[in-house]
Amino acid sequence: MRTAKFATPVLLLSVVTASSIAMAPGSASASGAAAGNTYYVAPNGNDGAAGTQAAPWASIARAQAVAKAGDTVYFRGGTYAYTRANSTCSSQTARVDAITLDKSGSSGNPIRYSAQPGEKPVFDFSRMTDNCRIKGFNVTGSWIHLKGLEVKGVPQNNNRNAESWGIWVSGSNNVFEQINTHHMGTGLFVNGGGGNLVLNSDSHDNYDPRSSDGPGENADGFGSHYTPAGRAANVFRGCRAWWNADDGFDLISTYSPVTIENSWAWRNGYVPGTTTPSGNGAGFKSGGYGGDYEANAPKHTVRFSVAFLNKAAGFYANHHPVANDFFNNTGYGNNPNFNMRGVDSSGAAVGRGNLRNNIAYTGTPTSYMTGTNAAYNSWNLGVPLSDSQFRSVSTSGWDAPRQTDGSLPVLPHLRLAANSALIDKGTGVGLPFSGSAPDLGAFENDGR
Ligand SMILES: [Ca+2]
Ligand SMILES: [Ca+2]
Ligand SMILES: [Ca+2]
User: Which of 260, 257, 219, 266 lies closest to 238, judged by CA?
Assistant: First the structure.
């Protein structure tokens, strides 16, 4: 993710001079909505400085005080270390933030907080000592775009709380792009917002050893929870979650729909970096309300995604009351690959899910299928499943560097071999495909 992708931003920077930055706020608006002001923050900056490239600020809080809709704040590479929250713990279970982003952009004119092209800003919260429940970033604002930031180390400083959070989102219509959250409680946690997009982001090695629910029970890679009914869908696209102690993706207790697509989840449910069992261990935990029936549950969608070697289910309905759509996913070596355990209005366990074009290979294929609407999946069709159907079945290297635009690396793993019997064996689900019909699994064959 270095030189090529940044050609355009570099050109942009070349026209942003110190004098243009020094103009009064709003002065750029005459040249169009897209030409907001540009500011800079650096680890060796000074909040008393001008916020220019030559004289950057030190903190995101200082930048937010000035930035307005349409503006961009670039963060220079290096570590932004936090040792205390921006408010005091009122109790051991109170919530405090290291960073609060409560200033909104507007539709078409977000406030952008972005890595300086080619550089890696790291927000390190590991030395915070606040004795309560900590959020690294608390994003209560809307129309904010975070890009290229690494977020790590939000600690649990007592055992009174379920988990800490890297990025907590209660605002709406935000974009989180090329974010890397790791080594803390849940990485990115949407709590109540709608219309948020998490794009091309990674969340891994999260663990909550001091969780009040037990070690590892709440450290998910990504979560979307508690959004009221009627909001725009929250979307996770091109994301990877691995070696999180609880689940890769978790959608429990939310009332507006979530779409997860083109995303990968593996080795969740273990103490990071080990095979020591820890929390629940689903790759994609797709809804549910703690086992309760909720009549207004939304339909979630998981498609073109891969789950492998998770401790528990790769794709899990998690007692969801309505049938979610699971289209063109690949489950490999999970326990089981697809667990469609839902709940009916009497509280009884029943299969819930609309499943098309999925592959379940090795491990236990499926469970709780009675009651689902499942067709054209590998287990329905009786197609031959063997390693030779795939270009590779390697479970290594999935954390390879992303492409220059932030999209997932193109690996041979679990892609169909050129002569695979799984090509064109699917059925149309209203989405693009090549050849005469959709293929089975997450990756439509590209002819190689
Ligand atoms: Ca759990
Ligand atoms: Ca979880
Ligand atoms: Ca095809």
Answer: 260
- Is 6 in a helix, a strand, or coil? helix
The tokens describing 138, both together, are: 């608390």
**Within a domain: 125:** yes
- Ligand 1 geometric centre to CA of 162 (Å): 10
> Which position among 285, 299, 311, 425 bears the catalytic label?
285
- DSSP letter (8 states) at residue 89: -
Q: What is the mean pLDDT of the chain?
A: 93
Rounded to the nearest angstrom, the distance between the alpha carbon of 424 and the centre of ligand 3 is 4
Q: What is the pLDDT of residue 447?
A: 63
- Ligand 3 centre from 353 Cα, in Å? 23
CB within 8 A of 88, min separation 6: which ones? 96
- 413 domain-assigned: no
Distance, in Å, from the CA atom of 49 to the CA atom of 41, rounded to the nearest integer, reads 10
Among all bound ligands, the one having the nearest atom to the CA of 282 is: 2
* Distance of alpha carbon 352 from alpha carbon 165, whole angstroms: 31
5 is annotated as an active-site residue: no
Residue 438 belongs to a domain:
no
Q: For residue 387, how far is its CA from the centre of ligand 1 (angstroms)?
A: 33
Low-confidence ranges of the chain (pLDDT < 50): 1-32
Q: What's the CATH number where 118 sits?
A: 2.160.20.10
258-261 vs 284-285, strand pairing mode: unpaired
Q: Cα–Cα distance between 169 and 142 in angstroms, integer?
A: 9
Task: Give residue 123's Cα distance to chain centre.
Answer: 17
Contact indicator for 8, 114 with CB cutoff of 8 Å? no
pLDDT score, position 35:
75
Instruction: Domain count for the chain, please give it.
Output: 1
Whether the CB-CB separation of 184 and 154 falls below 8 Å is answered with: yes
Residues 135 and 137: their CA atoms lie apart, in Å, by 6
The reply to whether 353 falls in a domain is yes
Which residue segment(s) compose the domain that 375 sits in?
4-389
- What is the pTM for the complete model shown? 0.92
pLDDT for 34 equals 57
